[in-house]
Amino acid sequence: MKKKKAAGNGAFKWFVMPIYLFTLFFVIGPLIYMVILSFLEREETWGVTNTFTFGNYLSIFDPIYLKTFAESLRLALISTVLVAFFGYVFGYFMAKLKPRMRKMMMMLLMIPFWTNSLIRLYGWIIIFRANGTLDSVLMAIGLIKEPLKLLYTYPAVVVGMIYALIPFMILSVYSSVEKMDWHLVEAARDLGATPAKAFWTVTFRLTLPGLLTGIILTFVPSMGLFFIADILGGNKVVLVGNLIQEQLMKVHNWPFAAALSVVLMLIMTVMIWAYRKIAKADELEARL
Amino acid sequence: MRNKTSLERLAEVEDVILRLENIKKSFDGVTVLNGIDLDVKRGEFITLLGSSGCGKTTTLRIIGGLETADEGRVILEGVDVTNEEPNKRNVNTVFQNYALFPHMNVEQNVGYSLKIRRRSKEDIKKAVSDALQMVQLEGYEKRMPNELSGGQRQRIAIARAIVNEPKVLLLDEPLGALDLKLRRQMQIELKRLQKRLGITFIYITHDQEEALNMSDRIAVMRNGVFEQLGTASDVYDRPRTSYVAEFVGSANIIRGTAQGSDENTVRFVNSCGTGEVSRNGAAIKDGEDVVTAVRSEHIDLCSPESGAKGLRGTVKEKSFSGGMLRIEVGLEDGTSVVSSRHGINADWVPGDAVIASWDPEKAVLVDLEG
User: Fold this and answer.
1) pTM, two decimal places
2) pLDDT tens per residue across span A213-268
3) Within an 8 Å CB–CB cutoff, is residue B144 touching chain A?
4) Residues B361, B294: contact at Cβ < 8 Å?
């Protein structure tokens, strides 16, 4: 594909200047600040000293912190796999609905975003807590005898993660399924493929870019979401996000928090780079 | 030996490879097909001809199994496949927009149906290369569909559909997206390919010239029924209805009341004058309505002073079309006729009073429809 030439218009350059300045001050500036911070030494009580050190990075190799990273990766992986499965199925069938129903589903997906995500999480507390909504319903229909007491457990955190992240997966899969040329599926059926075979060899392959985008949109934030583990996991589930927040707000070890953030960011960058690589190698975007 | 069922007889004795029996289909209460009957012989080239919305694509989709008929039966090689899944029918389709898989290269596209059937790698390679040779695209195995021209995609779509040697090949306006020159060339190639493979073709087009050029038989479709089914010369020279005459031969439709007819010729009058048409056994009596179709190449124009009998009118428009002079004459009753006869007098100018006439042998009586 040919690259579009940027408009070389002088006036146009000045119009976009504020955007460059905004990015400089609010994105690049803080980033540089954070990287610098991560190489400085901490002041005993507050702030930092001007001493250069690799110590912050070295202390990440402490087994306790490595375990936190591993735990975060594990939760992100579990959440992403579940979100990918349910999100793909949901997004696929949503794209196949009649236009009217589709619009309604879209609304139902968007409405929760109008409420603060923290408040929505408190809703889950009411559902999950001992003798809460879930326990009462399950006991009433006789599925369980004892309350499950799901609140402050690992499954509760996973459910919270799925709940928070699945809309991104659904929308990303939806937009890619919606673009499907269904004649291709008919062609596959015509050439002898069963419905399942036609799905795997054609539909799934052609909607894979949407699924991969959804995976990135799920995996990257799930590494950093700390308040879900906080609220639904109590202090039993500690993630990198929680660690950073704790180091920054409670321990006031800014350089260490910065170093943790930089490492987290590097992990995410590698993920996105890998995704790009896969997407490009497959030329998935190639369309007729 | 047990008796053969009627369906088996159909396939073996009469050599009917495909039969459609009273196929009916409607979408959301709108009738699209209203009783289609068709017997296709092995190796035949049949064209469904009609304007958009006449039901020709739906007919094809029902044969291919992509749509299910509300009523009627589809019989393929003596087996009732009416409710069979598309992947269970030995019928392949060349889709209008080709529907090549964009994520597969040419080799994978063409070999798809063989891979689905778990044929060995060597088999697939051999069959794909044979099919590509058939459409003259050897050496394109590794290209992606978006790296091919329209004509090449077309050929790949055909190669993909014939590689598994279907009993019947369905083609849905396969040349619709190509320019005129390529179309002509592909028409010849397709016809040649069909002869060579001996596969039965059911071909859809809205281009009457294409239909006349290629087909053994043509079914002119309209409003979900076959208006006429016959050989090219049947529908061209002996159209049954005014619609077929207009659609296939771009004929002029002229109406009048029979008067002074004899056993060979029907004569009629209308407010513009008189006309004649050979009877061909039609039982029209004087005083009855007459509808006749005369193609523009048979319409002659002369001046009123010549005293010739015919229809009175004035020259309305003069143009060139397809290398022929085309003169449109507005008749006195407000209708018009077109003349594009070889050797027509080029001196007529708009406004000239003329008499339009024709050889009665070249005119046909048709049923009025529409």
Assistant:
1) 0.82
2) 899 889 988 887 888 888 898 878 888 888 998 898 888 899 999 999 999 999 88
3) yes
4) no
* Chain A environment of B153 (Cβ under 8 Å): 288
Instruction: Give the integer Cα–Cα distance in Å for A256 and A43.
Output: 12
Decide if B66 and A190 are in contact by the 8 Å CB cutoff. Answer: yes
Q: Is residue B172 part of a domain?
A: yes
Partner B contacted by A287 (CB < 8 A): yes
Q: Which positions in chain B touch A189 (Cβ < 8 Å)? A: 65-66, 85-87
Chain A: give the shortest CA distance to residue B11, in Å.
Answer: 23
B86 Cβ under 8 Å from any chain A Cβ: yes
Q: Is A284 at the interface with chain B, CB within 8 A?
A: yes
Q: Which of B220, B237, B254 is the last residue of a domain?
A: B237
Domain span at residue B264 reads 242-365
pLDDT in tens, B77-133: 999 999 999 999 999 999 999 999 999 999 999 999 999 999 999 999 999 999 999
The verdict on B28 touching A (C-beta cutoff 8 Å) is no
β-strand partners of B365: B292
B261 and B232, same structural domain? no
pLDDT in tens, B230-273: 999 999 989 999 999 989 988 999 999 999 888 889 999 999 99
Look at B92 and A186 and tell me if their CB atoms are within 8 Å.
no
What architecture does CATH give domain A62-282? Orthogonal Bundle (1.10)
The string of DSSP codes covering B52-111 is: TTSSHHHHHHHHHTSS--SEEEEEETTEE-TT--GGGSSEEEE-TT----TTS-HHHHHH
Q: CB count, 10 Å around CB of A182?
A: 12
What residues contact B276, with CB distance under 8 A and at least 6 apart?
A: B265, B266, B267, B268, B360, B363
Residue linked to tokens 């009993």: B167
- Asked if A183 is an interface residue toward chain B (Cβ–Cβ < 8 A), one would say yes
State whether A188 and B101 contact (CB < 8 Å).
yes
